[in-house]
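In response to the reviewer comment on reproducibility (Comment 2.3), we provide here a single inverse folding case reported in full, input and output, so that an independent group could reproduce the run without further information from us. The structure tokens appear first.
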């Protein structure tokens, strides 16, 4: 099936025949259900292999509820390269793409993996952690916009508060969005406002009040001030909404994470806290046979490097085609593990002494952590730092004693004195 926003083009092959059928299906739950019902009745409920360019999407989730459909997701880049190999002219349309997918399914099914859904708990957790990251990124963008606009007309507010990511600052700007409005407030009212919420780190009124009286406006341009006041008010309202939404997400993520069967394994690793534990759980999934080896997980996550060799030329570079959020998860975990794991910190220091760059070392350390995580996940058993450190000490090569040779000449003969160091 070649999916689209309004309709999907399909190409069908029945084993034992030489003909192929083609058709279209509208993108609606009713149309898809009617089409699948026809196929079910036609083939008496026998399994049907379906190849599509989606690993997550509306079409895949619509088809996943039918048990007799065996779904084979294919990466869009793979389908595009295969189409270029079959049709070098570069021609492209929806029926042609459906034929290309069918051709790949018939002749290269061994390169495809049937889609199997994780548990509902794991999949919900996966959506939640990814959505939370998008909300956090949106909050960061809003904070940067707020900082830039305050520098334009009201830069003193940034120096009076410890951080722009402060709920107290946002409420302060809602009350007094510019310096002129702030100068009209009474000292008692400002002091009561600052002391209202003890959870926030409020500036000292004894230092803030003289600073307000001595402050000089950054600009007198009414156009700049008027538009900025409206923009800042809108931003702080949006920031408060995002802050509340992130709090609800984190609460739900915590509930799902702490009840997940793999939580004791993942949480036993150094550097894995409340934010990284659910991300590692979703990166692994619940299907133990999804990855046949640690190397498959390392390659899937983008941590394993790619080697490109041709003739005398060899180039090893970072993997680009990978789920970026998963790769970021493992790299952040490796970074946090430096403060919690003695062997990880020693490894980092050795690599730095050899002149390696920071991010290259972090990826190399993540490569090692994935191998350990995969073994604990397969067993399953929690990680034990002392046990792994003892294993490293046992496997460490015994240093070979060096021998220094001193060549001396005495009465026509030579003598070598060997000294062990």
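Designed residues, in position order:
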């Amino acid at each position: 099936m070649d999916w689209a926003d309004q309709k999907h083009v399909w190409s069908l092959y029945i084993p034992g025949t030489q003909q192929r059928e083609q058709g279209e299906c509208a993108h609606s739950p009713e149309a898809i259900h009617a089409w699948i019902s026809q196929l079910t009745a036609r083939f008496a409920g026998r399994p049907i292999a379906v190849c599509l360019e989606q690993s997550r999407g509306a079409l895949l989730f619509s088809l996943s509820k039918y048990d007799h459909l065996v779904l084979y997701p294919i990466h869009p880049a793979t389908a595009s390269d295969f189409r270029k190999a079959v049709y070098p002219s570069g021609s492209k349309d929806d029926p042609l793409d459906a034929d290309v997918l069918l051709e790949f399914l018939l002749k290269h099914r061994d390169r495809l993996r049937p889609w199997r859904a994780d548990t509902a708990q794991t999949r919900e957790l996966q959506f939640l952690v990814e959505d939370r990251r998008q909300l956090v990124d949106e909050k960061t963008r809003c904070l940067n916009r707020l900082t830039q606009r305050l520098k334009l007309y009201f830069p003193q507010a940034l120096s009076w508060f410890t951080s722009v990511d402060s709920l107290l600052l946002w409420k302060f700007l809602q009350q007094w969005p510019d310096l002129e409005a702030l100068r009209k407030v009474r000292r008692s009212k400002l002091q009561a406002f600052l002391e209202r919420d003890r959870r926030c780190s409020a500036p000292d009124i004894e230092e803030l009040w003289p600073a307000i009286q001595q402050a000089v406006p950054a600009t007198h341009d009414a156009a700049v001030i008027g538009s900025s006041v409206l923009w800042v008010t809108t931003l702080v309202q949006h920031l408060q909404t995002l802050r509340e939404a992130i709090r609800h997400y984190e609460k739900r993520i915590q509930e799902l994470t702490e009840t997940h069967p793999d939580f004791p394994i993942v949480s036993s690793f150094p550097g894995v806290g409340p934010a990284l534990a659910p991300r590692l759980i979703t990166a692994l999934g619940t299907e133990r046979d999804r990855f046949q080896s640690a190397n498959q997980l390392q390659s899937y996550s983008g941590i394993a490097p790619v080697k490109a060799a041709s003739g005398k030329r060899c180039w090893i570079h970072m993997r680009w085609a990978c789920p970026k959020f998963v790769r970021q998860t493992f790299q952040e975990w490796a970074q946090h593990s430096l403060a919690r794991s003695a062997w990880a910190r020693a490894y980092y220091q050795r690599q730095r002494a050899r002149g390696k760059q920071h991010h290259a070392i972090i990826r190399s350390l993540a490569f090692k952590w994935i191998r350990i995580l995969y073994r604990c996940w397969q067993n399953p058993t929690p990680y034990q730092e002392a046990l792994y450190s003892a294993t490293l000490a046992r496997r460490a090569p015994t240093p070979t004693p060096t021998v220094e040779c001193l060549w001396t000449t005495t009465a026509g003969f030579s003598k070598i004195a060997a000294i062990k160091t």
